[in-house]
Amino acid sequence: MTGLRVAIADDHAVVRTGYRRLLELEPNVSVVAEFADCETAYTWLSANHADILILDLSMPGRGGLETLRRLKARVPTLKVLVFSMHGAPAMVSQAMQAGADGYLTKSSAPEALIAAVLDLGAGGQPLSEEAVRALGEAGNDSQAPHQVLSLREFQVFTMLAQGLAVDEIAARLCVSAKTVANYQTAIRQKTGLSNALEMFRYARTHALLE
Amino acid sequence: MTGLRVAIADDHAVVRTGYRRLLELEPNVSVVAEFADCETAYTWLSANHADILILDLSMPGRGGLETLRRLKARVPTLKVLVFSMHGAPAMVSQAMQAGADGYLTKSSAPEALIAAVLDLGAGGQPLSEEAVRALGEAGNDSQAPHQVLSLREFQVFTMLAQGLAVDEIAARLCVSAKTVANYQTAIRQKTGLSNALEMFRYARTHALLE
DNA sequence: TCTTCCATAGGAAAAATTCCCGACTTTTAT
DNA sequence: ATAAAAGTCGGGAATTTTTCCTATGGAAGA
């Protein structure tokens, strides 16, 4: 049996080297390439063969997710293991939708990385516990703002998410500040987003702004 | 010659293992401890001897900076090498002021880590190029939060910028909510950032967060 | 030593938020 | 068609958060 050909994409050289050493302890695995940015990874993988790509989503070069999507479109047989700093539900589900074959958070044990690579090689879909939990949460996400909020509430929501103050919103909508304050309260209750920053993050990851 | 006793604090197990393997290639270096959080690191290092601590500032338990400061106060002979994801000017100058003996970014070459550890052992002050540049820049940016805010204020600032509520911050820092509220007011006045979302945006564009 | 800055926090006043409510309009279901 | 439900708008009172002022003790510096 020939070994698994693994490529590593992570912008931190030390981290890449760490992975490489870890993986090379495994006889059936060989690391055939390392990339420090998305473009290089895309170019090389389009032209050369690898079985598995370990991909850090928080990479420079604008859009680890976008690269993942393009890569899966170009080289469908390539298995991609996303290895990310954070296990935020939105991030996990975004990554899986973009075509990831597995998702591990960096807080996983070192052995988990090896196990995940072997699992992927065998056709599995390795997910860390955090990732599974995140996907679960993302699933019952039928509580989206568009659903629970009324038109006016949603309008106020997007403004709050942009960082506008209650008074400013009231001025723009030509209603009393009191009314906007009341909407704000309703929005917080219905969505569970308790401040403007949470709203901003929610809105951004769900592409509700602009 | 006895080897350098090195401890590693980083919340990502895989990353820790990577460093360890890297460092253990060096005959004069031995890794004597690993920590996944600040408290554990502080406790162990107060009671046991190590020459060098490699510290990732972006650790949970909030306040890698605070831990660094406490640690240097408690164990002044310990050399601390800060090894951070980002070389933002603010972060570098804060870290150095808090007592760091060296600063490397994770984008450094693997050899740089080894070199930095040896340099530290020999009494040097290893700084990555990015860090040097950052220290330079930190000087001329006199209006920046990092300049006008005290250590404690800056700490609260980063938490506010992450969307934490006043009460949560108070709980984490073990101080009265009143105190945090007062800091918040001071921060808003000094920086002109009037709400958490503005702080977030500022912090993001200046790469002050993890 | 004396001064200044920082961390901490209490009290009072001001501002923002929440909760409850009512009036009126539009949509929906029977 | 008519009743019920839901949405828009805001007032008033209670509550919470924020601001402003003050004070104490510690640490750093002149």
From TrEMBL, chains A, B:
Transmembrane segments: none annotated. The keyword Phosphoprotein applies. Residues 142-207 form the HTH luxR-type domain. The modification 4-aspartylphosphate is found at residue 56. Keywords: DNA-binding, Phosphoprotein. InterPro entries: CheY-like_superfamily (IPR011006), NreC/VraR/RcsB-like_REC (IPR058245), Sig_transdc_resp-reg_C-effctor (IPR016032), Sig_transdc_resp-reg_receiver (IPR001789), Tscrpt_reg_LuxR_C (IPR000792), WalR-like (IPR039420). Residues 5-121 form the Response regulatory domain. Pfam families: GerE, Response_reg. Gene3D superfamilies: 3.40.50.2300. PROSITE patterns: HTH_LUXR_1, HTH_LUXR_2, RESPONSE_REGULATORY. This is Response regulator. It comes from Aromatoleum toluolicum.
